[in-house]
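Need C-alpha cells for this chain, all 213 residues.
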Amino acid sequence: MTDIFDRSLDNIKIEISNNKMEKGEEINITAKDPTMTNVLVAVGWHLHSFDAQSLDVDVSCFMLDKNGKTRMNEDFIFYNNLQDIDSAVVHNGDNMTGAGDGDDETISIDLNKISFDITQIVFVLSIYRGDEKQQQMSSIRNGYIRLINVSNSQEMLRYEISSDVESSHGETAMIVAYLNREGPKWHFKSVGELVERGLSHVATEYDIVVHAG
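Here are the C-alpha cells for all 213 residues:
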C-alpha cells in the first residue's frame, strides 16, 4: 500500500503522564493553549496475535450541527471521503493492517476553518466488514486516541480504549471521542461507547444515507 502519511510528525514529543484521560472526561483544549489552531487526532492499535484473520480498522469522523446531525454527505469524513468541503477536516489515509508501532491513522483539523454551523465532531473506530467477517472490537489491543498540537508537535491528550473493547460482545464499531465547540472554545471528551452494526449504523444515526453494496 502506498505510504501517504505525513512523516513530519514522526518525532512528536510525548508527555503521557499528565495527558491521560479517564472515560467520560471532558477537557477544554482551548484553555490548555489559547493560540492553538491546528490539531492532529491520531489513533493506534495492535491486534491480538491469536486472531487468524487480520482486521482492517478505520477511523472516521462526523461533523454535526446543533441538532446532532450532518448537514451533507461531505460531513462524513472516512476512507472514501477524505475531507469536508472547506478542507477543515482532512483524513490522512487508510491503513489496512495496523502493523508497526505508533499512530496508524490520523485526521488533521484546522479549527479556524470549521464552519460555524458545526458544533461537534464525533470520532469513530470501526472494523471494515466486521459483521460480515464475524470480527469484533475485542480483537484490538493497546488501542488509543490522542490529540496533538501541530504547531509544537506536543501531545495534549490521550485516551486508551483497551478496557472498553474488552467488554465487546460482537460490536464492530466504537464512538471513541467528541470534539465539542462552545463559542470560541473547543473541548475534547473521551467516550468509549461500543456500537452494534458497525460504521453504517452510526452514519445512519447522523443522517447519512448508506447505500447497500
